[in-house]
Design goal:
Elements: H1 3-23, E1 48-51, E2 57-61, E3 65-69, E4 75-79, E5 113-121, E6 126-134, E7 140-147, E8 155-163, H2 175-178, E9 189-190, E10 193-194, E11 206-209, E12 215-219, E13 226-231, E14 238-239, E15 249-250, E16 254-258, E17 266-273, E18 278-285, E19 295-301, E20 327-330, E21 333-334, E22 342-352, E23 358-366, E24 373-382, E25 388-390, E26 412-418, E27 428-429, E28 431-436, E29 439-442, E30 446-450, E31 456-461, E32 464-474, E33 480-488, E34 493-499
Parallel strand pairs: 21-27
Antiparallel strand pairs: 1-2, 2-3, 3-4, 5-6, 6-7, 7-8, 9-10, 11-12, 12-13, 13-14, 13-16, 15-16, 17-18, 18-19, 19-20, 22-23, 23-24, 24-25, 26-28, 26-34, 28-29, 29-30, 30-31, 31-32, 32-33, 33-34
Length: 509
């Protein structure tokens, strides 16, 4: 063999070796993966986050809790506890206690103030807080308060909507201020009690602006489902529509969007995405206890008042078993780097920061023998099919990779977690699977494709195509990870986590 050919052969083998080594992403062994839980140091149930004018963050939740932060990971409480000592409100517990006049106290003799939602009113220049007071699983009302600053104090203005009334108690509400006096109450009462299988429980309000700048309120919990009313910006009061039973529109309660028959659906939040031009209805299913199967689902619509559909093209109405309806975004899960199983995520909301990044906020319980909980904040992205997916770990400043990925960047061991569609205490585990040259082998079998130069990934498992995004981030124990989050047309979301050897690995090309 001539010398030049030998040199060419050596160079060729060297290049193949280099390219082969580049094709494999360095990864940690299971023994070297650090475990932990990035605690938030605050406890806020049904959390909602609003970005203040100076870029700081404010979080509000059930039981008059509130926290603030300059970053999404460093929160401090400034209000907690239902009572006059809590200065979040300046008049809620005045002698009249108007917000509690109808509902009264709970069985334990305490007042309940649940699930607030704060929004900046563009017309009045005021911050508006919508919240609920309640005493039973149907006897509730929605109230609103205003403040000059996001931190408050908030001044209770009025109660705007009531549920749980009967023929003898309806006159204690504003029902006949809205409805004609000859309205037959029998349409809302069954066997002498409020018909909660058809009509809503007036809790869990959430306010949002539509693409045309109109203000809306979505609300409801279990009972007759989720309802929608337009809000008058100038006054803060609902704009009650003309009744249209064929379209699910009631003058008093508004437009029914989903649920009914006392199916477990609550905590509604609607997010409009200018990129996909969809309205996303995000809700909780299940019971909020750690073993109650609490979880987060989504539906979407091109119009603000629906119809809201899932990935199967279904809308949720009254059904016997609703577990197969709605795209399940997350439920109970565990991954190698988590120090315990994460249980019962829910009570969610969304927000967009000053950079245009969208986030999902919710409270999280854990498999630790208690009902303790803390808020979590995960970044949201839209897939090529226009569904929202959350990152597998809490947000820590990550962004989509500017130049995207190539197929070789995905090579390695992944722990795939399928959230399924069950409503149960089952724990979804990350299962070890190998990605290489477009093939998936191990606990899951299938194939994958990466759209070159983008963050889009398509994964096929058992004949189902899941479309999602790839992202590099740091997990809650400090490990650098490469993740995917993807949705299939079976209403299931899968997560994949690849533990990188070090942060430098994310830059390979």
């Amino acid at each position: 063999m001539k010398k030049t050919k030998i040199i060419f052969y050596i160079i060729t083998i060297t290049l193949i070796t280099i390219l082969s080594s580049c094709a494999k992403v360095n990864e940690k062994s299971i023994e070297d993966i650090a475990t932990g839980n990035a605690k938030m140091k605050v406890s806020v149930h049904d959390p909602q986050v609003i970005v203040a004018e100076d870029g700081s963050y404010y979080m509000f939740g059930t039981h008059m809790t509130a926290a603030k932060a300059n970053s999404l990971t460093d929160w401090s409480m400034f209000a907690t506890g239902v009572g006059a000592r809590n200065k979040l409100f300046d008049n809620l517990f005045d002698e009249e206690k108007e917000a509690f006049a109808y509902v009264g106290k709970n069985e334990d003799g305490r007042y309940s103030v649940w699930a607030p939602d704060v929004i900046y009113n563009k017309a009045t220049g005021k911050y508006m807080m919508y919240f609920c007071t309640t005493s039973t699983y149907v006897k509730s009302n929605l109230c609103f308060a205003t403040a000059d600053s996001v931190e408050g104090p908030y001044t209770y203005q009025n109660t705007i909507l009531y549920s749980g009334f009967t023929s003898s108690t309806v006159k204690k509400t504003n029902f006949y201020d809205i409805m004609p006096e000859d309205t037959k109450i029998t349409a809302y009462v069954k066997n002498g009690s409020y018909n909660n299988l058809e009509w809503p429980n007036c809790i869990d309000p959430a306010l949002f602006y539509d693409k045309n700048g109109k203000l809306w309120m979505v609300y409801g919990s279990w009972s007759g489902g989720i309802f929608l009313l337009q809000i008058d910006e100038e006054t803060g009061y609902p704009i009650h529509p003309e009744a249209n039973p064929d379209s699910g529109v009631d003058t008093y309660f508004g437009k029914k969007l989903a649920g009914g028959g006392h199916n477990s659906i609550e905590g509604p939040y609607i997010q409009y995405d200018e990129d996909t031009r969809y309205y996303y209805l995000i809700v909780s299913y299940g019971v909020l206890t750690s073993d109650g199967g609490y979880q987060i689902r989504q539906f979407r619509s091109k119009t603000v008042d629906g119809t809201y559909l899932d990935a199967k093209g279904q809308t949720l109405d009254t059904v016997v078993d609703h577990s197969d309806y709605g795209v399940k975004m997350m439920g109970n899960y565990t991954l190698p780097s988590l120090d315990c199983t994460y249980m019962a995520p829910g009570g969610q909301s969304t927000f967009t920061d000053s950079e245009g990044k969208m986030y999902l906020v919710y409270h999280q319980r854990f498999k630790d023998g208690t009902e303790s909980h803390e808020p979590r904040i995960h970044q949201l992205f839209s897939t090529s099919d226009g569904w929202l997916v959350a990152t597998p770990f809490a947000s820590n400043g990550e962004s989509l990779k500017e130049n995207g990925y190539q197929s070789k960047d995905v090579t390695g061991t992944y722990y795939i977690l399928n959230h399924g569609t069950d409503i149960s205490s089952n724990e979804n585990l990350g299962k070890e699977t190998t990605f290489s040259s477009g093939a998936i082998k191990g606990e899951y079998e299938g194939s994958y494709q990466v759209k070159k130069g983008s963050s889009d990934i398509s994964i096929t498992i058992d004949g189902v195509i899941y479309k999602g995004i790839l992202i590099d981030m740091t997990d809650e124990a400090g490990n650098p990870v490469r993740c995917f989050s993807a949705v299939g047309d079976n209403n299931q979301t899968i997560w994949g986590v690849h533990y990188l050897e070090n942060a430098e690995d994310e830059s390979i090309n």
